[in-house]
Design goal:
Layout lengths: L1 H19 L5 H8 L8 H21 L20 H17 L3 H7 L5 H20 L1
Helix pairs in contact: 1-5, 2-4, 5-6
């Protein structure tokens, strides 16, 4: 139960952060990608803050023998840059540029009850399911 509450708390903080920074607004992301037009640097600051926290906290956390609420760390095992990774990255980038949303902000954006966000999330889930059938 404590792990579920911790996950709920972390997800809530993440979602609130996305809303406060307006990263749930596709216009912010599209504005960031429009480097030769009306460029919006907001996303640089959001990414910079996240990178700063991660750069400090991750090494400290992984020095522990185990996480607070798990028996072991679950770190990525794959480190190779291969065709599936590159293909997925390209598709993710295209979808991000076209829709102005990525998974985290899209899920947080469901609270807006926007039909376009709901269609995006449904499509994202369908795509994830489809890929899982081919792996």
């Amino acid at each position: 139960m404590i792990r579920l509450l911790a996950a709920l708390g972390c997800g809530t903080v993440f979602g609130v952060g996305l809303c406060v920074s307006e990263m749930v607004n596709p216009a912010r992301v599209v504005g960031f990608l429009d480097v030769f037009g009306a460029w919006d640097a907001t996303l640089v600051f959001v990414m910079g803050a996240a990178l700063g926290v991660t750069a400090i906290a991750f090494p400290l956390i992984t020095r522990r023998r185990k996480p607070l609420l798990e028996e072991q760390f679950f770190l990525p095992q794959k480190t190779a840059v291969d065709a599936p990774l590159l293909t997925g990255s390209i598709l993710f980038g295209i979808g991000w540029g076209v829709a102005g949303l990525c998974p985290g902000p899209a899920i947080a954006g469901l609270a807006s009850l926007s039909p376009s966000v709901a269609v995006f999330v449904a499509s994202m889930i369908a795509g994830q399911w489809l890929v899982s059938r081919f792996e």
